[in-house]
Every structure is written in C-alpha cells, then in structure tokens.
Amino acid sequence: MMLLTALPVLIPLIAGFLLIFASTKSYRLQRVLNLAIVFGLILLSFKLVNTSLLGGHQVYLLGNWVAPFGIVFVLDQLSALMVLITSILAFGALWYAVATKADENGSYFHVLFQFQLLGLNGAFMTGDLFNLFVFFEVLLLASYGLLLHGSGAARTKAGLHYVVINLIGSTLFLFAVGALYGVLGTLNMADLAAKISTAPAENLGLIAAAGLLLLVVFGIKSAMFPLYLWLPNAYSQTSAPVAALFAIMTKVGIYAIIRVHGTLFGIEAGELANFYTPWILGLGLITLALSALGVSASTVLREQVAYLVLSSVAILLIGIGINSPAALAATFYYLIHSTLIAGGLFLLADVIARGRGEFQDQFVTAPSMSSAILVGSFFMFGVVAITGMPPLSGFMGKMLILSAALDHAWFASILAVVLIAGLLMIIAVARSGSLMFYNTKEVGEIPGEKLNAYALLAVIGLFMTGPILVIFANPITAFTELVAQQQFNNQAYIDAILNTPAKTE
C-alpha cells in the first residue's frame, strides 16, 4: 500500500527514460507506449481515489527515513483527486496530439510529456516543501520544451516571457524556503505546521513574510492578479495538445495554496491562522473582473479560451478565500469541471482553426467550415459549460460557491463580481460563435481541412465531464465534501506523517 503512494511519481519517471530509447525507433512505438502508460495512470488514479476513501493518509517514506528527516509522499483524497484529473486530461491531450500528428512537429514530445506528468504528480504527492520546489522545477523544465514544441517566432516570444516570470517565481520560492528553514529548522510540511503553532512571538513576523512570499510564488503559478499577464499569450501561442495539458498547470498553484497555506496556516497556527485568506479572496475578485474584460477583448478563440481559464482560476481563488468546508468542497467540484472543460476547449479551438483555413480561429466573417453544424454544436456546449450557464456543471459549481458565501461578510461583492463577469463572458462568447458559425460567407469551396473524427474524440471525451458532473452530482459532491473535511483536519495530516514508523525487516 505504501508503494502505491509512490507509483504516480515512479511511473512517469521510468516511462520518460523508456521513451528516450523509443525515440530512436519510430513515432508509432512512442505513441503506443505513451498512450498505454497514460491510460495505465488513469487506472492507477482510480485505485488511488478508492484507497483514499478508506480513510486516513497513506505515507511513503523514501529511503525508509522517517519524517521530518526523510522525503515523504502522501496519499490523501486531495492528492488522489489531482492525480486523477491530471491523468484524464493528459490522455485527452495526448490522443489529440497523436490523431493530428502534432507530436511530429518537434523532437522528444513524448519524453517531455512524461516528465511533465512526473513534475505534476510529484507536486501533488510530496509532503515536503523543498521537494515541492524540486517538482515545480521538473514540470517547468518540461513545460519550457513543450511550450516551444513546433517553433515559431510568436511561440518563442511567449515562451521567453513564460521562462522569465517562472525563473523569478523559483527565486522567490527559494527565498521563502530559506526563511522558513532558518526560523523553524525543517521543511517537512507537517513538521512546519506543528512548529508554527508553537513558534515564539518574535518569529511570527518573519514566518508571515515567508508565507506571503510563498503566496506570490503560487500566485504566479496559478496566474493570480497581478501575476497573470504571462498566461494568455503563452497558452494561446503554443500547440493545442500542450495548451490542453497546461489547463492543469494553473491548478498546481491552486493546489499549492490549499496544501501549503492550508496546512501551515490553518486554525492550529494561532495568531497566523488563515491570515492569507483575505488576500486570496480580494485578488480572486480582481482576477475575475479583469479576465472577463480579457474574454471580451479577445480577437482569436485560443486567446479567449486562455482568458476563460483565467476566469476559472479566479472562481477557485474566491472559493478558497471564503474559507469554509462548504466553499472548499464547491471549489473542488468546480476544479474538476474547469480543468477538463478548458482542456477540451483548447483542442476544439484547434479543430476550428484547421477547418477555417487561412482565417484560423480569428473572430472574423469567413466561409463556412467543414461539418460546421457539428463543430458549432460542440462550441456551444463548451462555452455554456465554461461560462457557467445552466444546466451544465459550470453553473452548478458557481451556485455551490455562491451558496457557501451567503454568510460571508463580502457576499455582496462576491455576488456582484461573479454575476457581472459571467454576463460579460456570455456576451463575448455569443459574439464569437456568431462570427465563426453564423455570419459566414457564401462560397462554393470549403477553406480548410476536413473534420478529423479521431481528433474530435478527444474533445468529446473531455466535454463528457459536464454531463457526468451533473448526472452524478450527488456522489461527486459527497466526495468533494469528504476531501474538504479532510483538508480542514490538519492534525490528522500532521500525525500521519510524523508518526509513520520506518519499515523493519
């Protein structure tokens, strides 16, 4: 059972090296291996979720060194959920890359894809703050290569901005880690939480400063205002399967805020308990307002989808900032919806761009594309889901978060910003759909490629999240409530890690 906790990290690590050797053979071998491995990760993820439901925390002691002296991987309901979402999204993105042969546009796509999964899964499973930094760097190094996959001047420029902002974030991360280690003498998250709760008053200022510095770092990762300017350009310029996979990248920052700040500065932290939540709530509201303006001002679909991703990040930040079990449960429900639907929309934007030929996904009047009615129907489905219109999962997720905010002091502001931003986004996507699918030129020849049915399967698979989250809303919300309750029980997390004994022969 302990080894099961390490498998989400070990499998992509081993797979990455296997694919390096396979890259000397053929694309067919790489594709088969990579698809099989990612599908295996989906099966493993369901096993992890099932195991997490048995209760408690499963702790793997790397090298059999007990915490806080050794590296630990921790399986709980939140980490299992994040690994599952990542695996499903990765399979959809990889299937699309294979179906469109986008993986042939550059070297080592499949290798980088697995190392990206290594960094993502490692970040979700680690129980150590320094190793969270290490896995951040692994996923960022892989993402640099994937972002530039296929080359191009615009992609290179966007990649440069992405690299620079993340290097700044990495530097700040090290400063924060160094400050916490200097004051508390540990970087194990459970041990940090235990020591912060008993820290002397003269150290609280430095600990709070380190916490705010970490919030800046995670704000960069999640694209929180004012640190979001890198996201629209980077996501809109990279290839479709990479942009789809990157839908989970902002959620790594969201996860880190929940895990690190929720553990270190929970109710047990005394004077520092929940000191970060007003910052998150306020910045989340500003991010939502500005993302709605970005959606309205976008001139191409890929850029518009990037701003829609930013709006989903803002909703998640608001849910975290409300800081209650009900709000956090609603946040997890919305996180599942927003990640997979956004991934599907990035893929659909590429389908539309291919079908419209030279007009790509620009919001201009153009000749009707191949299978316009079918593709337009999927576009309508996707934007209804992502903007939070009924009856799909985006509407349910927003309603759950707003319901959880009823007793919050900021409820009027939250309600106003969510509703006005939602209205602006609905108007914007309605205009976009009208220009691409309704106001078309009458010509005899279809301008772009014929619809790739195999590629469309990836879009359909990710879009199925919407109906599934609605049809099975009761058991899924029951699960997210369990996840939220477990996150608010910090003492159980601390005890599980610090009291796990070394294995004896």
Tell me the number of structural domains: 2
By DSSP, the count of extended strands is: 2
Contiguous runs where pLDDT drops below 50 for at least 5 residues: none
Shape: globular
Structural class estimated from helices and strands: mainly alpha
Gap between N and C termini: 16 Å
Total of helices? 21
Computed Rg: 22 Å
What fraction of residues sit in β-strands? under 5%
Helix content: over 70%
Major beta-sheet overview = 2 strands, antiparallel
Word description of this protein:
It is a single chain. The protein has two domains: 275 residues, no CATH class; 191 residues, no CATH class. It is an all-alpha fold. The protein is 74% helix and 2% strand. The chain contains 21 helices and two strands. The radius of gyration is 22 Å and the shape is globular. The chain has a two-stranded antiparallel ribbon with strand order 1-2.
Give me the secondary-structure topology.
Blueprint: H1 2-22, H2 27-52, E1 58-61, E2 72-75, H3 77-100, H4 109-125, H5 129-147, H6 153-184, H7 189-196, H8 201-222, H9 230-237, H10 240-245, H11 249-264, H12 277-297, H13 301-322, H14 325-355, H15 372-387, H16 393-404, H17 411-438, H18 453-463, H19 465-471, H20 473-488, H21 490-498
Antiparallel strand pairs: 1-2
Helix pairs in contact: 1-2, 1-4, 2-3, 3-4, 3-14, 3-18, 4-5, 5-6, 6-8, 6-9, 7-21, 8-11, 9-13, 11-13, 12-13, 12-17, 13-14, 13-17, 14-15, 14-16, 14-18, 14-20, 15-17
